[in-house]
Write a structure and sequence with these properties.
Keywords: Phosphoprotein. This is Chemotaxis protein CheY. By secondary structure, this protein is α/β, with parallel strands linked by helices. The protein has five helices and five strands. A five-stranded parallel beta sheet has the order 2-1-3-4-5, sandwiched between helices. β1, α1 and β2 form a beta-alpha-beta unit. α2 runs parallel beside α3.
Length: 121
């Protein structure tokens, strides 16, 4: 069975890019969210194997959402997505429990490498 992934990013274009990379590599995208609040609700509803989470989003940012998701499921696997120059936020995310991070603009092989590593494939 394909690994089930939830994509969280406030930019529809970025969600589409990640979805294309994942689908081409045999992953199942079970849902998408455009902010941290939606991410938490979708996580509870869908229970994905992994979440790709943007850091900078309106309403609730990715780090706050990560912390809430970790309260729901301490074993949740989350990979943070950040733009260049957000190193301090990436460190905060890793300390909050993120498993890895990928930098925008996305490189397909790096996305798949991070996901495979996190899922233990």
């Amino acid at each position: 069975m394909a690994n089930r992934i939830l994509i969280v990013d406030d930019a529809a274009f970025m969600r589409m890019m990640i979805r294309d990379i994942l689908v081409k590599n045999g992953f199942e995208v079970v849902g998408e969210a455009q902010d941290g609040g939606q991410a938490i609700e979708k996580f509870k509803e869908l229970r994905p194997d992994l979440i790709t989470m943007d850091i900078t989003m309106p309403e609730m940012d990715g780090i706050a959402a990560l912390k809430e998701i970790k309260k729901v499921d301490a074993n949740a696997k989350v990979i943070m997505c950040s733009a260049m120059g957000q190193q301090a936020m990436v460190i905060d995310a890793i300390q909050a429990g993120a498993k890895d991070f990928i930098v925008k603009p996305f490189q397909s092989d790096r996305v798949i490498e991070a996901i495979n590593k996190t899922l233990g494939i």
